[in-house]
Design brief:
single chain, 243 residues, 2 domains, two-stranded antiparallel sheet, two-stranded parallel sheet, ATP-binding
Length: 243
């Protein structure tokens, strides 16, 4: 049966039943696909992209109707890619962009602030040069097997640290717990993050997400707790902020 024809019947309040069509986020969760990749994200309508906010936040999709509520598990990692403008040439050293400023603003505005606030790592990638290709070919390479081993070690460290909690992954830990007595980092470790929050450069949701990434960086590096270095790296990966 195709995904489009696959319906779920969910029991809801007052003994009513409602038929809901599965979406890809729920299908990915069910079959164990943890990555969802969206290329050319601004080509999608804003309403479609903003519909991702709920599953990115809670890992669940809830559909509310007058007398029915349906909930579908939808926990996945989202990877989005976007050009800097509709023609894709803005910022290129040897190419001319044909897009007026208003078109560039409209294009990128489809990635709303609330959606981006739920994206932990945001990187700007420049065009690859011939020199970079040569250096990459001659330099050391990180193989998939090595990367997998690093991730497995980091996950094992997180699971051991969280053994007495309801969670096993850093991404599952709620912000209040991270900021509470169990996992609170010293002021010197979070000083850069605190300044970003005070200046309005990051939201409270973003603050908690930076902490989660910092713990993951520490686990990958074999460090027991994040310090200023790991928190700074996590903030840079999110906002490009260094101080």
């Amino acid at each position: 049966m195709s995904v489009d024809a696959n319906f779920l019947t969910v029991a809801v309040h007052r003994q009513t039943r409602v038929n809901c069509r599965e979406g890809l986020a729920n299908v990915f969760h069910d079959i164990g696909i943890i990555f969802c990749t969206i290329a050319e994200a601004p080509e999608f309508a804003s309403a479609v992209l903003d519909a991702l906010r709920q599953p990115l936040e809670s890992g669940v999709i809830s559909i509310h109707r007058a007398n029915a509520v349906a909930r579908f598990p939808a926990r996945f990692q989202l990877v989005m890619a976007a050009n800097p403008c509709p023609c894709g040439q803005y910022g290129a050293a040897d190419l001319d962009c044909s897009c007026p400023p208003s078109a560039r603003r409209r294009y990128l505005a489809r990635l709303s602030g609330p959606l981006l606030d739920r994206i932990d790592i945001q990187l700007r990638v420049q065009r690859v040069t011939a020199a970079q290709l040569r250096l990459a070919a001659d330099g050391p390479r990180l193989t998939s097997a090595t990367a997998r081993a690093h991730v497995e070690q980091a996950r094992a460290a997180a699971a051991e640290r969280l053994a007495d909690t309801p969670w096993s992954l850093n991404s599952e830990v709620p912000g209040p717990w991270l900021r509470g007595a169990h996992a609170r980092l010293p002021g010197e470790a979070t000083a850069i993050l605190d300044r970003a929050l005070e200046r309005g450069g990051i939201t409270m949701r973003g603050y908690d997400r930076v902490l989660r990434v910092a713990w993951s960086i520490a686990d990958l590096g074999g460090v027991a707790r994040p310090g200023a270095e790991q928190v700074g790296q996590a903030l840079y990966l999110r906002k490009g902020m260094t101080s």
